[in-house]
Design a protein that fits this description.
Number of helices of chain A: 3
Order of helices and strands of chain A: HEEEEHEHEE
Structural class of chain A: alpha+beta
CATH superfamily of chain A: RutC-like
Oligomer: homotrimer
CATH architecture of chain A: 2-Layer Sandwich
Number of strands of chain A: 7
């Protein structure tokens, strides 16, 4: 049985990855009432980690594709938190996005749009979220890391 | 009709800007019950974006002035979220502040005090908040970006 | 009277520091219902601030020790927020960890494990949290800064 949101993700030509297992003594998500906190998801796809530094080894377009990978990983965690039923997602509330970049790079928002645009494509209005997008130095040399707060039913 | 908080802001010689429109597929704020999440507000004033890098092109005092601009932009978003009535703001709960700076710069807290001090001047005790202040690389070369969680009635 | 959690911390050979006083017009924590937001705690111990930059002046192991200091400082704030009774802590919900590092450093997660591992050692399952770990430039040259969201009874 595939829900409406997952059907829509398939229509968009994408597939949810498996929810990544915890890498240490932390967990991929914590549920507090109907609020779901998802740990920072680094950019990865079926080929592995998406590495790179914006302003150096990666274009803004490539960064946006990496941010879209984070969106899929976030939704995979939401699905896991909802017992497999992604249709229980009520709202993407807030994302904090970190972009691996040089000190001179200024297009963090365009990079993170790769995540935000996909969430709205996949979820409609409930995909619209508050957000911050800043440059940072990221684990393992990943291009993007995004954490999120979600409302679930 | 101007509320008490806005009257106080005027007494302090400041004016709320217009709440900035969403720049992409994200929104300036999301309301979840009585919790309000406001997107990262970059430093800007009536002349436009406040650009600069602390430890390089900008002094700590100039950075604090930029952080005060973020405080005004945050309050402008809170006002919009409250249907124009800033007196519905119950508490500034938590700020996360990002300061555009060189790797050697260490006065992020003094910079962010420009925001924190103004919020307490304008709001009194309900302006006192939990906070983190760190250095990062910021969109468009802005000097400061601050996001916030607020409690509203 | 010492509670179970503090007894366990003592068994682990550690002592809670005094909760650090507010350094400016912000506060160490804000309580919103049963949700507790604790301000970013920079790495410090009985000798003072733990300074350093990962990938330069500090090893990953030293960074993990600094992150453990942040865990103790966070718990000290939780204790203060709970009127001195750390057993009122229900769950560590979410940590955001910033590691002072060079642009080439990639082991932020291993550094932050110093905090996460200690929380689980001290608190058991209620110490398991959602988390993000990224590199940044930190106040005063501190090695690590960690903020947290906690659930309290």
């Amino acid at each position: 049985m595939t829900g409406k949101v997952e059907t829509r993700i398939t229509e968009l030509g994408e597939t949810l990855p498996e929810a990544a297992a915890p890498a240490a003594n932390y967990v991929p998500y914590v549920i507090d009432g109907d609020t779901l906190y998802v740990s920072g998801q680094v950019s990865m796809n079926a080929d592995g980690l998406v590495l790179g530094r914006l302003g150096d080894t990666m274009t803004t377009e490539q960064g946006a594709a990496a941010a879209k990978c984070c969106a899929l990983s976030l939704l995979a965690q939401v699905k896991a938190a909802c017992g497999g039923d992604l249709d229980r997602l009520v709202r993407v509330v807030k994302l904090t996005a970190f972009v691996n970049c040089t000190p001179e790079f200024t297009e963090q928002p365009k990079v993170v749009n790769g995540c935000s645009d996909f969430l709205v494509e996949a979820l409609g209005d409930k995909g619209r979220h508050a957000r911050s997008a800043v440059g940072a130095v990221l684990p393992l040399g990943c291009a993007v890391e995004i954490e999120g707060i979600f409302k679930i039913a």
